[in-house]
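Progress report, Aim 2. The chain analyzed during this reporting quarter is listed below.
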Amino acid sequence: MARRVRLWFAGAKFHVTSRGIRKSSLFYEDEDYKKYLSYIEETKDRYPFQLHSYCLMTNHTHLQLETYDTPLSIIMKHLNTKYAKYFNQKYDFSGHVFDKRYGAEILDSREYEIDVSKYIHLNPVEARMVTAPEEYPWSSYRAYLYGQSEETSLVNPNPILSYFPEPSQHYYQQYIHSLLTDKFFWKDGKIIKLEGEWFPCGLE
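Predicted C-alpha cells for the chain:
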C-alpha cells in the first residue's frame, strides 16, 4: 500500500516525534545527545527552519519546528539519516535505528503551540527522570528560562514567549507548572491566568 502524502505548506508548524526501533535507545552517552543536536544545527543550515522547542529522551525525540521553503519530509530524512549512520558506525550496529516514519502533527492554533511546548518540556518530569524540567540537560527549557547560550542556541523561544505578558520567562514558567484545572484566556494577544498571581493589575 502506498504511503499517504503528508500535509505540508511553507510556514507550517509541527510537533515531530522520532522513536528508536522497537523502543530501543537512541542515546547511550552524552556524546550521542550532542551529536544529534549538532546534526539539527547542520540540517538547519542546509534546509532552514525554526526550532521552537525540543527534548531528546532516551529512546525518542520531540521537535517543535516551523518550516520555511523545505518540506518537513526532507528535513527529517536528512537529520535522522545522518544520526542513524553515526549511531550504527559508533556502536557497530546495522539496520534501522528509527522506528518506521517519524510522527508529525500540524500545530494549527496558538493554544496548540503553547500546549505542545509545555508537553515537550515536561516529558522528562513525566518520565520521572528529573523533578523539575530545568534539571534536564537535553531540552530547550533552560533557553526559555535563562535566555540563549551556546548550549541552547539551536532554539528560538521568542515565538512561544511572545504569547505571554512581560516578564514572559516568568509567566511561561508559571504556565509550565499550571494544573489542568487552571483557567486561561487571551487578552491583547497574551495568555492570562484567570485568577491568582497572574491576574494583571487593572484588569476588570
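Residues 143 and 152 are 6 Å apart (CA to CA). The first strand starts at residue 13 and ends at 19. These observations will guide the mutagenesis work planned for the next reporting period.
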